[in-house]
Design brief:
Residues 25-104 form the Adaptor protein ClpS core domain. This is ATP-dependent Clp protease adapter protein ClpS. The chain is an alpha+beta fold. It is built from 3 helices and 5 strands; from the N terminus they run βββααβαβ. It has a domain at 38-105: Ribosomal protein L7/L12, C-terminal domain/Adaptor protein ClpS (Ribosomal Protein L30, Chain: A), CATH 3.30.1390.10. It is 40% helix and 29% strand. The strands form 2 sheets. It has a 3-stranded antiparallel β-sheet. The chain has a two-stranded antiparallel sheet with strand order 1-2. Strand 1 (3-8) and strand 2 form a beta hairpin. It is elongated. The structure holds L-tyrosinamide. L-tyrosinamide binds next to strand 3, helix 1 and helix 2.
Amino acid sequence: MTGTRPSRDGEGEASVVVQTKPKTKRPPLYKVLLLNDDYTPMEFVVHVLERFFGMSHAQAFEIMLTVHKKGVAVVGVFSHEIAETKVGQVMDFARRHQHPLQCTMEKE
Ligand code: TYC
């Protein structure tokens, strides 16, 4: 809601009213990053991107190749809670399949 606050302006008793901006703070967003390694099979990474990030096969293959060539790629942008959940799901899935795939998040 818009607020007002009285403010002393130097000498005497004069007071001015300053209009404050209505503050609607958007929650911060977090990038989820996938990191390259030499051992995780390409098909496994494609599967992860389809399964946890809702990508089509073609989209997933493209992003997997970007990570493979460049070392890292953003695979999605989410609220803190959703980003944390995605990272956890990917790390858990990779560990269960004994692949060293790494997934992290960082504030946008
Ligand atoms: N570099 C891996 C390979 O050659 C493939 C790979 C791609 C691994 C993306 C991880 O996030 C990754 N098998």
